Amino acid sequence: MLILNKQLFDTFFSQSTNEFFTRLYNFLESEESGAFTIWKCEGNLCEAVSGRHSRSSATFDIFDLGYEGAAVSENSKSVDFFDETINLDSSFFLESRGNVMACITFHEEAGKDALTMLEPYSQYLGSRLDELRARDSSLSTYVNYQKKIDFVKKGSMIFKAIELEEVLAVSLNFFMEVFSAEAACAIHKDNFNAIGLEEISVRELIRINGIPLYDYVMENRRTEFIEYGIDAGEFNIKNLFVVFEPAQDIVILLFNIQFDIVPDKEFSDIVSSIVSIAVENALNHETMTRLKMEEMEMRTTGDILNKFVQRDVRVYGDVEIQGISYPARTAGGDFFYICDVSGRTFFCVADVCGKGYSAAVFTVVLSVYVSLCSAFEGHEKVLEKLVESLNRFLIGKSFGDRFITAFFALYDPERKTLDYISCGHEPAVLFKGEKQELSSGFLPLGIIEDEYRQTAVSIPSGSSLFIYTDGVIEYTPHEKLVPEVEKLIKDDCKDIVNNLYNELVTDKDSQKDDFTCMFVRFR
Question: In whole angstroms, what is the distance from residue 501 CA to residue 427 CA?
C-alpha cells in the first residue's frame, strides 16, 4: 500500500506551473533530498527552475540529464559545463502524451528516498503539469488579448485629433507612453516629427546592418521589431520597433521600448490601423473643411450669378408674357430676357450647353449682351446685328465645346408681325388657329461665324407663342408637350408656365435639368 506524502499530494492541486514547481521543491526539501535541481522542459531542452546546484541556471538536453525513455534513470553520470563538471546521481522525468514536461536531477545519494516516492506518480504528475501549462498558456493569451483591447481603447484618444500634424504628435506621445520608449519619430511624406532625437540621427547616424536607418525603413517598408544589427554610435539603442502603415505611407519608429505586450504581427497591425484611421480622419477633415469653404464660396457665386438672370416674369401690354426658369442646381445655364425696343417687344430664350456654375457664367454674358440690344435700334435688321455680334464675341473668346442655343424675337404691335432668329434651339410653337413651328437652320452660337437672317411671320390677334428649352422635354417629348400646352390655352389658364412645371416636375428635389419656358399672348 502506497502512502502519499501530504506535500506531494498538495502538488496535484496547484493552480499554475509556478505553484506546481514551488510545491514540488518544498516536497523535496522536506524529504532531505540533498542537492537537486528542478528543470522545465520544452521539447528536448531543459531549463532550470529552482534547485541547490551552483549551475542550476544552465540549459541542457534531456539526454544530457540521463533520459533513456523511462521515468527514472539511476545511472550516475557527469555532465561538463564549460570548465565545471555537474555530477548526476539519478534523474526523474515527468511525461505526458509522449513529451517530457519536467525533470528532477539528484546530485547526491540522499535523493534515492524521494525518487522512490515519486516514481509511482510519474504519469499523474506529468499529466497535471501538462494541464497547468495549457491553462497558463490560455490565461497568458487571454491576458495578452485584454491588454491589446485596453491598448485600443486608450488609442481612441488619437482619433480626437483632427489636424494631421496633431495626429502624428499625439500618436508619438501615446506610443511612447504605452511602450515606455525613450525616443520616437514619425515620417510621413516630407514631414518628420520626432521626440528625443533629431532628423540627422535617423538619416545618417543610426544604422541597421550598415544601412542608414532612414534608408533601411524606406527600402523595407514593413512593420518589424529589431534587436540585432543596430549600430547607434554614441546612442544607446537596444531595440527598435518599426511601425509601417502602407495606406497613408507613414513610418513610426520607437526606440528602446519596454513592453508587456509582445509586438507580434497581429498587434503591429492593430497599431498600424489606429494610426491609419486617425490620419485618414485628419485628411478627410481637411478635405471636408476645404470643400465647405468652396461650397460657401460657390453658393455666394451662385447668388451673384442669379442676380443677372430673371427667374419668374410677368409682362402686360401689347403682349402678355409669362416666363419661368428653374435651375436644376443653385445656378443654371438657361436664360430668358424681355425688354422694350422703341415700342416693339424684344424677348429671347436661351440654353447654354451644360449645367451649374460654368453654364451660369455664360448666362451672365447673355444678360449683359442682350440688355444692350437697344444699341442696334438704328439698324433695319436689329436681330441680325445683335445675333451676329454676340456670335462673333463668343467665337473670339475660344470657349471650346461651349455653345448656346437661343431663340430671339422682336414683336411689332402696329404691324402685327414677329421677326425671329432661332440658333439651334428647340422649335417655338405659334398657335394661331393652326399650329406653326418656328425654327431656323442656323447652328448654335459660339461654333462658327454665319450670316444670320431674321424671318418675319404675321401675328393675328389672339395668337399665342410657346418657347422652351430642352430641359422641358426631359419630362415629355415635343409631340406630347405641344398638345398639353394647347389644352392649357383652350382652358384659358392664366398661369400656363407654372401649371406646366408643377404637372411635369413632380419631384422638385431631383430635377433632371434646368426647366425654362415662356408663353406669349398677342392681343
Answer: 19
CB 304 within 8 A of CB 364: no
Residue type, 299: R
Axis crossing angle, helix 122-155 with helix 164-179, rounded to the nearest 10: 150
* Separation of alpha carbons 241 and 236, rounded Å: 15
Q: Which residue did the predictor score with more confidence, 373 or 344?
A: 344
Q: Are 349 and 335 in contact (CB under 8 A)?
A: yes
Angle between helices 122-155 and 17-30 (to 10 degrees): 140
166-178 burial, b for 16+ CB within 10 Å, e for fewer? ebbebbbebbbeb
Cβ atoms within 10 Å, residue 161: 19
Residues comprising the chain, all counted? 523
> Distance between the two ends of the chain, CA-based, in angstroms?
131
Q: Bigger pLDDT: 141 or 494?
A: 494
User: Is the pTM here over 0.90, yes or no?
Assistant: no
What SS3 class is residue 64? coil
Angle, CA 177 vertex, CA 172 and CA 182 arms, to 5°: 80
- In whole angstroms, what is the distance from residue 438 CA to residue 310 CA? 24
pLDDT tens digits, 378-397:
567 888 988 998 888 888 87
Residue with cell 430641359: 471
Burial class (CB in 10 A: 0-12, 13-18, 19+), 480: exposed
